[in-house]
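Memo to structure team: turn this sequence into structure tokens by end of day. - J.P.
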Amino acid sequence: MASEHPRILVTGATGQTGGAVVARLSALRIPVRALVRSAAKATALSALPHVEVVSGDLAQPDTLEPALAGIDRAFLVSTSDPHMLDVQVSFVDAARAARVRHVVKLSGIIADLDSPFRFARMHRGAELAVERSGMAWTHLRAGEFMPAYFRQIPNIVGRSALMLPMADARIASIDVGDVADVAVRMLTTDGHAGNAYSLTGSTAHDMTEIAQLLTAAVGKPIRYVDVPPEQARAAQLAAGMPAFNADALFELFAERRAGKESAVYPTVEQLLGRAPTSFAAFAARNASVFKGEAPPK
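Reply from structure team:
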């Protein structure tokens, strides 16, 4: 895959997943072009070997032409906000015009046009845009990211509690690193075009079990508190979350309480030849974060 000019483009390169994909490609000595809104804010990426940082905005197609020039495969991820579908469709159009051969899209585990969850509808809409583009495609339908529990740090530190509107539902969370490893495999090997891969961890935990695993990691008792959905939404708004996102989470947790994210898929192990990261390992690795002693990574 090594070449004078990068053949892989990663969008959202300063984000959680995009950044992990870029770092892994760099470590493998595979040239990669990292798309960011502001190159001045991506100095850490610029310092990585085999990484070319380029500026561009998914919402402004005219800024994407230089970034897409000569690109063979692209990893598509963007912020979960009201414009997610529009910007991803915009990117798909630009990629097709630039003759990109294959788009790997980070999607959601319950992507569905008929879903009550707004981002699931957006993900499926963007998937369809890729599928209809004529480019090869691979969808990575990832379950809940384990770092989502970092939002609970104020409750864990201040109240020794995990406070979520999950009732007794189970969820099969996945480590971001596992998603990034799968994405790198999709971007660097053949045989995955036309596939939608559901990605989860190897165990679906309920929140009492998650609290027990966090207890083991931080060394103090953490209890699970089942919060009424409206109370959870009010707390998110009070913490400064935009209403659009708070409403989206309200929809998402309703889907989770209905068991929509409880299925465990063996896909990560099948694709990578190793078991996915357990929540226990994730919690132990981030013990200082959950103790409030270090910032989330």
